[in-house]
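User: I'm preparing a small set of examples for a lab meeting where we compare how different chains pack in three dimensions. I only have the primary sequence for this one, and I'd like the structure in token form so I can line it up with the others. Please keep the answer compact; I'll paste it straight into my notes.
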Amino acid sequence: MSETPEDVMKLARDAAARWYDDDSSFMLAGEIRAGEHDDWPVVRVTARAIMAERERCAEVADDYATFYRGLGCVHRHHIVETIAEEIRLGDRSCP
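Assistant: Understood. Below is the structure token output for the 95-residue chain.
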């Protein structure tokens, strides 16, 4: 899943590992968090869901940018476009 950003993978691994935290499989939870089971469906599906939600949120911001652009609010639509970009980039936007 190299195309999936690392911050998303970390969230997906943590979510998947929680299934095993309460069980006696704490070693397996650690392996999942370490990325040793990124090919498991529970990790892949969770990562896809996080990416889909991230894109949905960015689309909401895009809608606001379009609205402000239509009103002629130049600064506001630039701010909202930046917010949409930051949502899509996630941790990759931070230096």
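A couple of notes for your slides: Helices lie at 6-21, 26-33, 41-71, 74-89. The chain has a mean pLDDT of 87.

User: Perfect, thanks.
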